[in-house]
Predict the 3D structure of the following.
Amino acid sequence: MQATLSHYRILEQIGAGGMGVVYLAHDERLDRDVALKVLSPGTVVETSARKRFHKEALTLSKLNHPNIATVHDFDSQDGTDFLVEEFIEGMSLDAMLASGPLFGKEVIGLGSQLVEGLAAAHEHGVIHRDLKPGNVRVTPDGRLKILDFGLAIIMRRESSPTAVTESLSETKGIIGTLPYMAPEQLLGGKLDARTDIWAVGCVLYEMATGRRPFLGSGPALTEAILHESPPAISKLNPKIGPQLDAMIQKCLDKDAEKRYHSAREIAVDLQRAVSTPMSSTVHVRLRGWFAARRWAVATAVALLLLVACMLIGRRMDWQVIRHGSGSTNPAAYETYLQGREFLRRYDKPGNLDAALRSFENTTKADPKFALAFAALGEAYWDKYRQDGDPQWVSLASASCRRAAELNDRLPAVFVTLGRIHDGTGQHNLALQEFERALELDHRDADALLGLGDAYSSAGRIQEAENTYKRAAAMRPEYWEGYHRLGAFYYQQGRYADAASQFRRVVELLPDHASAHTSLGTALLSLGQEPEAEVEFKKSMALAPDYVALANLGVMYYRQKRFAESATMTEQALQLNDKDYRLWNNLAIAYEWLDQPEKAKNAFSRELARLEQIVVLKSEDAEVRANLGVMYAQQGQRKRALPHLEAALALSPDDPEILDKVGEAYEKLGERSKGLDYFEEALRKGSTLEDMELNPDLHSLLSDPSARRKLEAALAPTAKPQMSNR
């Protein structure tokens, strides 16, 4: 498929069906996203039919109703016919029904919107002909939208609102989806508004019971539609009242004359069926799914210079596959299990990529295997945490969206969404996702670990520690809980407690490379450099680990062994060149080695990465501050200041951020203002030793007056810290 069609730039495929493939596209002329349906070859065969279809699409575009997706255009390019509709964010009714029937008020509330939209179309002489749950979507605010009117028959009204004739008389064959087709539609009879009313009955029946009114396939299903009565709704769902049951049965009368004659009549009866507003349950069901759209590329880096994978993501042990989340394809199920086994020990070289391949193959073999899509989203997210490439976050989010469409009752989906939100700084959204996962399964240890992360990010320290401990106690034989608790302790500066937790992981899994790296990092922060170096080298002996190499580079840098620091950092970048911090560290080492051209190139690479990341990670104070420093280094004051101000607004008391802001003003030639921030940073725990390791601050520290001010501000309890500048 080409990247553009006419003036529509294709972004991603979002659906497919018998009539064609649907893409999310961007209208370059009007600067808006649209749903672009590329019709299957042969859908509109003759030139005359194509012209009529175009004319009728324009007629449809004039249908302006809140419950109908607007048709913008129908056109052809190089023999490809395509229809352009309003892009509707939301969940298909089909996906909502995957987890079972709706509540009575939901049936009435959504059903009322469905028939209001149909009534508006019928009054303009248009019937749908293919109404089904898959052609209905519900937006984040609970608005129902009917899709694919552009593939309807355009009807010309005669004397009666229900007596209409087909204007595309050359259209051959029966068009529709068999389980929702009216008897007259199956028999090739004349179609009118009551044909859609039959389909409304089918949709309402499915909403109320969780199953279609007529089951089977092929001739058996046709026979049932023509001659059998559907089971009484009250037997399948006793909570549905008799009034609603009778209305649905009236829609499904095989004699069109005995059905409702207009959608407006159904709307009136639905209004009578309930005396209270629609339940907000629809919104509750959708909350988790829609949060998946509010995503951005990010991950919280807690261990100072440590790169993103130091905070290793959650891992699910085996979960019982709930109804609607499993696969009916034995081969796909087996591949899924293989992927889970790879993911369980993602720390081993190649396992994460193997897990990704397994889950990708699983979802191709079984596109309705919800749990496999959830696992794929998890693996994509961890791939991002491993190498920092933003493409993985986009894929993770898309996989979670697909899993939620298939089944919104899987805790795993909301745990991964929560981790993405927490990584982007959207901590309240993250909390909602983790709480949603725990509502579904209060024993989900992964949800508890995620909740601990969100509490930590939000500054709710005691709640975070208690939650981490609870998660670790829930699975005492599993390493992940201890590792996450250790990472939390490290964030709080409790390095001895962190080292203790990391040692537990090493005891459980002596071949866990990342655990040795984490232990080495804690020891390094405790000042135990020889012991830290041993752990880093154990890690590298087990697996190529760019985190271990990066931290060795930091250790050598602090020891002023700049050549060795540069070598370690270069080796780390060979494994992962996506982390801007590594380019920064390399540039500073080159500066000390008096290699200005190499330093300039490394700083350029850092700036390029930061400019990519900040677009998607706007709420990360560290990213903002670093970008401000980079612009200041280039003398671009106007570009630097907004990022510095944003960093201070996000983390006003963080000494690392204050240091960076001070450095930026020093680079801009505003020493007096920079000194104010350096003094504040020192009062909050920064150190002169860190400042002395930054070659760009040599002039400042050589100024006797400035030095005296800084020494006077130095906190009495300040201890040396690792620094990434």
Notes: The chain has a mean pLDDT of 79.
